Amino acid sequence: MSTPYAKLPGWVEYGLIPLVNLLVAFAVAGLVVLLVGESPLEAAYHMINGAFGRGEYIGFTLYYATTFIFTGLAVAVAFHAGLFNIGGEGQAYVAGIGVALACLWLDRLMPWYVVFPIAILGAALFGAAWAFLPGWLQAKRGSHIVITTIMFNFIAASLMNYMLNRVMKPLGSMSLETRTFDAGGQLPKLDWLMAMFGLSVGTSPFNVTFLLALAAAFGVWVLIWRTKLGYEMRTMGHSPQAARYAGIKEARIIVITMMISGALAGMMALNPIMGETYRMQLDFVQGAGFVGIAVALMGRSHPAGIIPAAILFGVLYQGGAEIAFEMPSISRDMIVIIQGLVILFAGALEHMFRPAITRAVLAFSGRGRTDAAVKGA
Amino acid sequence: MDFLQLFLELAQSTVRLSTPLILAALAGLFTERAGVFDIGLEGKMLGGAFAAGCVAFVAQSAMAGLLAAIVVSVLLSLVHGYASITQRGNQIVSGVAINFIVAGSTVILGEAWFHQGGRTPALAEGARFQAIELPFTEALRGVPLLGPIYADLISGHQALTYLAFLMVPASWWILYRTRFGLRLRAVGENPGAVDTAGISVIWMRYRGVICCGILCGIAGAYLSLAANAGWTKGMTAGKGYIALAALIFAKWRPVPVMFACLLFGFLDAFAIRYQSTPLPLIGKVPVQLMQALPYILTVVLLAGFIGKAIPPRAGGVPYVKER
């Protein structure tokens, strides 16, 4: 197994193998449902129905997906440069300050389409700033990025707790949140988009941030595969030695990559703050930064994979709420299990089924290369 | 004597809060010294605490609970080992996965089995670890200074606390004075050399991972059977990560691990005790700053401003035998 894996056709590499990994993850999750004494099929039915049954449900599904596209892209960009950014959670949390500041400052003066770009800038800036230090420490001082970003998640939690407790909470208010934004800080819903399909968004917070997420996905594709910087990032991800030999400035790439990653994670904050609650609440990220890891792994760090993976997690989040409602013994914590299983099977164990699949595929295509290829696997 | 009383109170809660950190950090020490990074300490501890809470309640026995905690935690370690040693997957990814799987499944299973909203039933006296009174406590209490220290600080902890502190020299001895320890450290620094000597790198690493599982299980059992009366949802509350921070802070050495854990435990105890009292010279310190301090200190250390933390050289790298 020491030689590289056999080259497989694209549909196997990017379609079949992730699908098999995903199915195994769901099968194991089904076992947990069985263990609890419920029917996995019924749970699956409630999940699909809860995620797609009505326009409103679809709106919720896509609302969650919007969040996960950002955090998934954030993790993916770092992956391409060989960096593991676990800090999306903290970066998104701190970026909330940027969004909230823009809204608190301008919401009564300007319409949303003026506030929105400023809030995007604020989110990206604060997210990037929170990712800068771990990136810089990795580049200049060699501190392991995984550990520093974990630490920064906790520091962010304390910082935000302090900010909401002492700084950003309106005077005399008891709950840990900013004041509710006026019209300028409220993003319009995408009801016209849903109406094109004859659906209604209902009460779901499906908003224009979704379009921004799609644009960001396209932007990441351009960055990674169509620019010099992206080429340098991928080179470093593949082989730091080769990158160094080619004269690519390692420290610069690390810092820039982390800041882009942090900015992407940060933009996630727009969705709940300006799109749903119209205020910044304590713990508004709710683990989305970590979902990004699962999304990036499942989407194989490619925007074209990340968008469906994010929608899948949107389905899990929205459908999971429906399951919890219909089957009380399966609370929303089920999603956390599935998330963990996806990370395990699509991430850490991604090569577990590869030898078997390789053999099967090559046996079917049967071109007599089977032996050599299987040895390669 | 007022000052002594204050000191004893703080020291006592420091010991209480440090115990699970010491056990978990030593757990991390064994696996990371063997070259397998583990950010799943949190999950294994939580899984152990849950198993301990369940079994101790059903069997009405603390020892049965402890055993269950160790079994569950070792099984989780083996999953991590299988992913990162046998399948050569990404060790960080595997650790993250385990944390999530445990965080979710403990809640779902706990709710399905006990219907108590994110907790296991409260344990009776007999199903928990009891505080142990060391001999002569009462007789020595009258001795000035040393008496109260002995009676209130050294005596009166649960068995697992003493075990945790005993594990510190024991770990040192195992790592630095036994053949197993030498090989374990070698496998984390230069697995190729160990392989050349005819020792199985895979099996050595699995043993490191199993040691980690055992200690994490004990740490979990401490949380639900000694520090509390049962398991509650998310009761580890980041302790696994603090232990990881302590391990790095101690530069992967057993005795400094203990001091780092005591320091972080002390910060925690201090933050709880002085939440709203202004301190001399500094004034009122926001409690959030105290909570963040272990993490900030670890980052400062990692940045190389207080010494340099150099991880085991082969850590995080799956071993590929050359053909």
Automatic annotation (TrEMBL), chain A:
Keywords: Cell membrane, Membrane, Sugar transport, Transmembrane, Transmembrane helix, Transport. The keyword Transport applies. It is found in: Cell membrane. The keyword Transmembrane applies. It comes from the Bacteria. One of its GO terms (molecular function) is transmembrane transporter activity. The chain crosses the membrane at residues 12-37, 57-79, 113-133, 145-164, 206-225, 253-274, 280-299, 306-324, 330-349. InterPro entries: ABC_transp_permease. It holds the Pfam family BPD_transp_2. GO terms for cellular component: plasma membrane. It is a multi-pass membrane protein. PANTHER family: ABC TRANSPORTER, PERMEASE PROTEIN (PTHR47089), GUANOSINE ABC TRANSPORTER PERMEASE PROTEIN NUPP (PTHR47089:SF1). This is Simple sugar transport system permease protein. It comes from Mycoplana azooxidifex.
From TrEMBL, chain B:
It is found in: Cell membrane. It holds the Pfam family BPD_transp_2. GO terms for cellular component: plasma membrane. The chain crosses the membrane at residues 50-80, 92-114, 159-176, 206-225, 257-276, 288-306. One of its GO terms (molecular function) is transmembrane transporter activity. Its main location: membrane. InterPro entries: ABC_transp_permease. Keywords: Cell membrane, Membrane, Sugar transport, Transmembrane, Transmembrane helix, Transport. It is a multi-pass membrane protein. This is Simple sugar transport system permease protein.
